[in-house]
Amino acid sequence: MDEIKGFFQRTGVKRFLIAALIILILYLMRSMINLILFTFIFAFLMDRLVEFTAKHIPLNRKLLVLCMYSLIVTLLTFGLVKYLPIITVEIGQLIKRITAFYAQPHDNVFMNYIEEVISSDQIAAYLENGVSFLIKSFSDISKTSINILISLILSLFFLLEKPRLQEFTQKFKHSKVAPFYYEIEYFGRKFTRTFGKVIEAQFIIAFINCILSVIALMILGFQQIFGLAIMIFFLGLIPVAGVILSLVPLCLIAYTIGGFIKVIYVIIAIAIIHAIEAYILNPKLMSSKTDLPVFYTFVVLIFSEHFFGVWGLIIGIPVFVFLLDVLEVTNKDTAPLPPY
Asked: What residue spans of the chain are helical by DSSP H?
């Protein structure tokens, strides 16, 4: 009996059992996964934004949080009212352009190769999931809006009461569930340090790539800029593969409006932007421990897309990096977590 009790009191065994329990709870709550992910992403990103702003603007924290959320809600409302109809029309026009491309015969070897690439199983699966995700989101816009609204409210209250929440949570250290608390705290700190930081970097990189790409496309004479900006931003959240996936429809549209020479210009522009991402943004925003080999990146994306759909493409790499950190598959110069 003492041996069995000692076995379950080992740190590794307890962490494994608690991790399995957390995974089981998340699986049982899978119908709420959108709400959970939105809430975590909003809370983490807004907390980082508030901390950054507080360093430059000396304001009370609660007042600063309220001002930031009021500004974001105002911008979202203005954007939805003014630009949602435009974006909807432009996405429809983009679909018509791509459909028209397929309806026309092509004698160009390069464009025939592009068609073959798109027809390959994995690329076709990504595009199909992405299109179905967009269509489902637009058709079920009310449910998505409610999830986003609830996530914003939850993240707002979290940030307003963050010091009080931390003080209250500390009480569990001296309760009967203290062993569970310490392990959950361990996973929580690991999760925030890896998953949160990688998600933050992906959003910043996707936003900068979107701005640079839109400028390049405007110079090249592209239309439906708002629709293209939405597509580039969301595909930009997918590490490495997002560049390839966004390049495919851009090349098709470029060919329909300017022929093969326009395709060359688009490839050059995207290559320059990708070089800026790879050699400037990634080293500054991504920690060295997230510098995965390209092979690992694609394998993780393929499996995460298969099991989790479109969300898997976005959170697959952050979750994988979190698991690497838990398993301590990190660089030697990574700073250890502070003791309990």
From this structure: 2-8, 11-28, 33-56, 61-103, 109-119, 121-139, 141-160, 162-169, 178-191, 197-219, 225-236, 241-276, 282-285, 294-308, 310-326
Place of tokens 């740190």: 11
Collapsing DSSP to helix, strand or coil, 174 comes out as helix
In this predicted model, what pLDDT tens digit does every residue of 276-298 receive, in sequence order?
877 777 766 665 445 677 777 77
CA–CA separation, 98 and 243 (whole Å): 18
For the chain, how far is it from start to end, CA to CA, in angstroms? Answer: 29
Alpha helices in 220-240 (DSSP H): 225-236
DSSP of 130-149: HHHHHHHHHHTHHHHHHHHH
Two structure tokens written together for 90: 């432009």
Q: What is the pTM of this model?
A: 0.70
| Residues 265/129, Cβ–Cβ less than 8 Å | no
Q: How many C-beta atoms lie closer than 10 Å to residue 48's C-beta?
A: 14
Cβ atoms of residues 289 and 334 within 8 Å? yes
The CB density around residue 83, as the number of other CB atoms within 10 Å, is 14
